[in-house]
Write a structure and sequence with these properties.
The chain is of the alpha/beta class. It contains 10 helices and 19 strands. The chain starts with a strand and ends with a helix. Bound molecules: guanosine-5'-diphosphate and magnesium ion.
């Protein structure tokens, strides 16, 4: 995006913003310091000062997406799968998330007090799996709207005594649109009225055909209440992870997405980040959405202080100058100065957009007004 505000242009050509505003006024345009100018308008103003605008395509360094670069194949290693649980209301999503956490997290983690940070990790057969503890639908809709993909695998929970319901179908559509593999958890198998065959039958109509019936979808009958079948579900997640080969490069600066964030009375801005690539470290200069700072403290999902967090790890951080939003991207920078510059530019853009002043002056509108 080749655009600058009047203020930014003024800075670049070493002029006062008021001078640019006056020039625009003479061209018939009423502008403020925050007015966004497009490439043609910039060239016109610049030429008035005998300044040539470089033709090279500039990378917009304030766009955090540009830092989500791909790594060379040899730098990649296996990372834990990131899993979201979706399904119709009351089919057992929360119970399943709690059940997985309670049965798995306590094993081998002496005195591990689980704290709610919006995501957690469990270990199955020596391998980690990351669960997003946020409502699956929200995670999909807000994050997909920003083009941010954070989920690798969706667990579709369907109550065996209730079958496919409207939000079940909605969940399938979200997962399909995001091209995320689905594992079906046929829940509440402990109930008298449970009928797994009916669930399988109904899901066939939505393109999810069980392996037992010649299809490709994994179905796991389980009970989130009794814990029966949960180990099988975790094994199936590992299986899908092995097939899909989720990888990342731990030896680079971290990038990822905000899971949740809020203002804490004592600690200030607190954000749970999911590291998607690289390793996040204490002291890292960071831009998170429209906020920035230095990673002051990091706490993992067990409530323990950690010094670093690798790919697919959820971690709660403090040290930001403001509260970011769920779904915001984060990027670690080389030095604090760059992080501050990018962060402030992003905050400024957000402010301008918020005030509704982001009207674009193009050459056409300039001429229209002449
Ligand atoms: P959510 O709306 O999908 O998060 O559903 P919840 O986890 O809140 O569960 C809804 C209700 O179903 C609660 O009363 C749970 O105790 C119950 N429930 C969830 N899983 C099971 C299960 O496997 N068996 C039985 N019998 N009840 C369950
Ligand atoms: Mg729930």
């Amino acid at each position: 995006s080749e655009s600058l505000t009047v203020g930014e242009l003024a800075k670049k050509i070493y002029r006062e913003p008021s001078e640019i505003i006056k020039k625009l006024f003479l061209l018939g345009v009423m502008a403020t310091i925050n007015q966004v100018l497009d490439k043609d308008a910039i060239e016109l103003i610049a030429s008035e000062y005998g300044v040539e605008v470089e033709e090279e395509i500039k990378i917009d360094t304030t766009d955090l997406e540009v830092y989500f670069t791909e790594d060379s194949e040899e730098s990649l290693i296996e990372r834990p799968s990131v899993v979201t649980i979706m399904g119709h209301v009351d089919h057992g999503k929360t119970t399943l998330l709690d059940s997985i956490r309670n049965t798995k997290v306590t094993e081998g983690e002496a005195g591990g007090i689980t704290q709610h940070i919006g995501a957690y990790q469990v270990v199955e057969n020596g391998k980690k799996i990351t669960f997003l503890d946020t409502p699956g639908h929200a995670a999909f809709t807000t994050m997909r709207a920003r083009g941010a993909k954070i989920t690798d695998i969706t667990i579709l929970v369907v109550a065996a005594d209730d079958g496919v319901m409207p939000q079940t179908v909605e969940a399938i559509n979200h997962a399909k649109a995001a091209e995320v593999p689905i594992i079906v958890a046929v829940n509440k198998m402990d109930k008298e009225a449970a009928n797994a065959d009916r669930v399988m039958q109904e899901l066939t109509e939505h393109g999810l055909v069980s392996e037992a019936w010649g299809g490709e979808t994994i179905f796991v009958p389980l009970s989130a209440k009794t814990g029966e079948g949960i180990d099988t579900l975790l094994e199936m997640i590992l299986l899908v992870g092995e097939v899909e080969e989720y990888k990342a490069n731990p030896n680079r600066k971290a990038v990822g997405t905000v899971i949740e964030a809020q203002l804490d009375k004592g600690r200030g801005s607190v954000a749970t980040l999911l590291v998607q690539n690289g390793t996040l470290k204490i002291g890292d200069p960071i831009v998170v959405g429209h906020t920035f700072g230095r990673v002051r403290a990091m706490v993992n999902d067990k409530g323990r202080r950690v010094k670093e967090a690798g790919p697919s790890t959820p971690v709660e951080i403090t040290g930001l100058n403001d509260v970011p939003q769920a779904g915001d991207r984060f990027v670690v920078f080389e030095d604090e100065k760059t992080a501050r510059q990018v962060g402030e530019a992003r905050a400024q853009t957000a402010l301008v957009a918020h005030r509704g002043e982001k009207s674009i002056v193009s050459l056409e509108t300039l001429f229209d007004q002449l």
